[in-house]
Automatic annotation (TrEMBL):
<dbReference type="GO" id="GO:0016787">
    <property type="term" value="F:hydrolase activity"/>
</dbReference>
<feature type="transmembrane region" description="Helical">
    <location>
        <begin position="160"/>
        <end position="179"/>
    </location>
</feature>
<keyword id="KW-1133">Transmembrane helix</keyword>
<keyword id="KW-0378">Hydrolase</keyword>
<feature type="domain" description="Phosphatidic acid phosphatase type 2/haloperoxidase">
    <location>
        <begin position="113"/>
        <end position="229"/>
    </location>
</feature>
<dbReference type="GO" id="GO:0005886">
    <property type="term" value="C:plasma membrane"/>
</dbReference>
<keyword id="KW-1003">Cell membrane</keyword>
<feature type="transmembrane region" description="Helical">
    <location>
        <begin position="33"/>
        <end position="52"/>
    </location>
</feature>
<feature type="transmembrane region" description="Helical">
    <location>
        <begin position="186"/>
        <end position="208"/>
    </location>
</feature>
<dbReference type="Pfam" id="PF01569">
    <property type="entry name" value="PAP2"/>
</dbReference>
<dbReference type="InterPro" id="IPR036938">
    <property type="entry name" value="PAP2/HPO_sf"/>
</dbReference>
<feature type="transmembrane region" description="Helical">
    <location>
        <begin position="245"/>
        <end position="266"/>
    </location>
</feature>
<feature type="transmembrane region" description="Helical">
    <location>
        <begin position="86"/>
        <end position="106"/>
    </location>
</feature>
<keyword id="KW-0472">Membrane</keyword>
<feature type="transmembrane region" description="Helical">
    <location>
        <begin position="272"/>
        <end position="292"/>
    </location>
</feature>
<protein>
    <recommendedName>
        <fullName>Phosphatidic acid phosphatase type 2/haloperoxidase domain-containing protein</fullName>
    </recommendedName>
</protein>
<dbReference type="InterPro" id="IPR000326">
    <property type="entry name" value="PAP2/HPO"/>
</dbReference>
Amino acid sequence: MITIMNLSIIKNSLITNQTLNTQVINNFKKLRLSVFFPPLFLMILIVAFLIIENDFSVDAYILIQKDLFLYINSILSHQPNLQYNLTQLGDVIIFLPFLAIFMIYAPKLWESILASLIVSCILTNVLKRFFAVPRPAAIFDNDIFVITGKSIISYNSLPSGHSIATFTILTSVLFAFMPKKLKFKVMWFSIILSLGAIIAFTRVAIGAHYPLDVVIGSIIGYISALIGIFFSRKFNLLSWLANKKYYFISMILFSIWVIVLINKIITLNLIVFYFSLASLLATLYVTSIIYVKKQY
């Protein structure tokens, strides 16, 4: 039996769905190709800096950042538990559950995010293999900096995959819910950018990446999100996400996702995993109610 509370949830979700999804669609339509200019300009500046410093060799790239890496690592590593929890948000499996509810309320956002993540995944794997930069733990004496969690000694430091994923997701959210008034736009942009920077630089804090890995990764993530947004504007390949008769697919995926998160809790038992799991369970609950109501 569906309770009055459940009916209220369904009614409110339908209203919110229409309102938020329309807002997201309209905000995406406002974007012009000029939004690519700032991140591309920053990337050009970084490349120009490396050219001037003659730092296109792997050894030079690492050496020029060594002091800054050690400084940032020493400062941020004073709160290892906090940094280790925050850095997990660079994993899409942990971050996306916080946005899972928008699969109901703003499916266009999810369409954009999924398209963006495909782009960022390709770029991440191609660029990591191309540059093959050794991680800090593979090149420095591990006693001179703080390593939180498992020591990573692979040769795939550039760019930071966690930073790419973080900014891919946050940039999609940034433009999806961009306010209309300028002062609120500035505040919103500052909040999202600051959140992204905090999460991204945890990679330096835990000793997993150099500063430029994080900066370059963040820019790539930003660009990937823009590509995903423009793609979702032109194509509606995932429009079925908004169709309630297909919610059972989401419910199955969410259930599998729940198992994955529980396994992570069993393995590492970090508090951020509990928040992620709670967010996903809440979305699964609301999705189930709407789907059952649709059937009956």
